[in-house]
Amino acid sequence: MPHFFSGDELGAIKSISYAQGDNPKEWKASTTILVPASTSGHSKSIQNLALHSSGPESLLSAVRADGSASLYNTEGASLKVVHEWKESKLKEGQRFVGLESTEKGIYTCTSNGALRLTKPGQDGGEPSSSTVTLPMRLCEWRLSKDENTFAYGGNEVELSLWDTERAFSQGKEAPPQSASAESKKRKRGDQLLPGEIWRAKNVPNDHLGLRQPVHNTALTYLQPSTSTSHQHLLVGTANGNIRRYDTRAARRPVADWKGVGKTGGISTVEKGFHEHELFVADHGCTLAALDLRNGRTIYSYKGLAGAVSSIAPAHSFLASAAQDRFVRLHSTFGPPAEAGQQQEHKGEVLDKLYMKVIPTVIVWDGKTEGSSAEADDGAEGEDDVWDAMQAAESESEDEAKTSRRKEKKSRTA
Best label site of 166, 274, 344, 369, fewest CB within 10 Å? Predict the structure, then answer.
């Protein structure tokens, strides 16, 4: 059964587990408070969560509005603190825009361009960290699955793809001030920065010949790639557009789907587990599934009364955290076999869990239950056996009928 971790505006971290009721469409949620809410108010608001599993051990990372960060061990009914630190470069009015927990360490990125890799000390060793200076006014930062590349975008910051190893090696060689000064000069000449692989180009001017503003508010990787220079990326913009990029094909988007976000632009995007499936939320009450082949909405979820701030796909499920204080569990169905066909099944809200404090982020634990799959396989096996028995019975009945007919004919003859 699906299991998630959520964070809220007062710094609490909770475990949310779902179990199916007697009715297949009935789901019940059980919550456990792992980290209690802070008494210092919204300064401890959880801005992002990231989970990394290595064998039986699972580590949960959390970053907060005051710049503090924590790494927890999730074994047991409570969280055990492994390492804590604070981002000194996070200033007032800025926030964390990226967090990833990996085997190498914990990556954090702030809106003012401070990218840090923190390595907690192992076996009694001292923790260490290294930083990279990126452009300011960032809105989203993502790391690829293989950790070889990362991408970012922001307010007047075009989508950019970087080589992770080269970026951190350059960060060690050059001081932050000179790197930022050099970046401004190179951007004027449209040249790539040290460690930068590819940078998008602004879309053409509008019908009045005016330059269109750049404001990328959300992004995600669409599929893994063996080549660092060839990536498929997708961004959401402040004017509600969804743009798909192929770094090998062009610097401008290969697809630009307009008006997907109805209110306030795109807030978050996540690639689903089904083929050609994408989930999109805006700053209104829209949460929808899109077909990546044509950009069409295949279905939208009903009953949302607040903007969705975070979503977490989990195979055939989707969890969402919204400003109306609800954490919801949704069902998901993949796009039709052929683009443009009618969608037979549409996702629904399976459960609504009211939270006393507004939830800010939700993540899936990444674990799948083997028992349900085995049960389904067993049921399918039983169905095959019954089908075979019925087929054998029907064949025996047919044979009996033919033999009776032959007997009648022989008697009349």
Answer: 344
pLDDT of residue 350: 95
Question: How far apart (Å, rounded) are the C-alpha atoms in residues 61 and 81?
Answer: 10
Distance separating alpha carbons of residues 273 and 199, to the nearest angstrom: 27
Given CA atoms 247, 248, 252, 253 in this order, what sign does their dihedral have?
A: negative
To which residue do tokens 């750049």 refer? 214
- pLDDT at residue 382 in the model: 42
For residues 222 and 275, what is the distance between their CA atoms, to the nearest angstrom?
10
Q: DSSP readout, 231-254?
A: -EEEEEETTS-EEEEETTT-SS-S
Any residues with CB less than 8 A from the CB of 226 and at least 6 apart, and which?
Answer: none
pLDDT of residue 404: 52
State pLDDT tens for residues 191-224: 899 999 999 999 999 999 999 999 999 999 999 8
Listed as ranges, residues in the chain with pLDDT below 70 are 123-125, 171-189, 369-413
CB 184 within 8 A of CB 107: no
Sequence-distant (6+) residues with CB within 8 A of 314 are 2, 4, 273, 364
Adjacent-strand bridge partners of 317: 314, 331
How far is Cα 219 from Cα 235, in angstroms, rounded to an integer? 4
CB contact at 8 A, 221 and 231: yes
Task: Kindly write down the DSSP assignment for every residue of 284-323, as one continuous string.
Answer: SS-EEEEETTT--EEEE-----S-EEEEEEETTEEEEEET
Q: What is the DSSP letter of 42?
A: G
Distance CA 227, CA 237 (A): 26
Tell me the CA end-to-end span of the chain in Å, nearest whole number. 69
Place of tokens 């360490």: 105
Residue 233, token pair as written in the block: 């990326």
Q: Which pair of structure tokens corresponds to residue 263?
A: 């209110």
Whether residue 325 contacts residue 355, with contact meaning beta carbons closer than 8 Å, is answered with: yes
**Inter-residue contact 54 to 39 (CB < 8 Å):** no
pLDDT at res. 169: 92
Q: Is 170 helix (H, G, I), strand (E, B) or coil?
A: helix
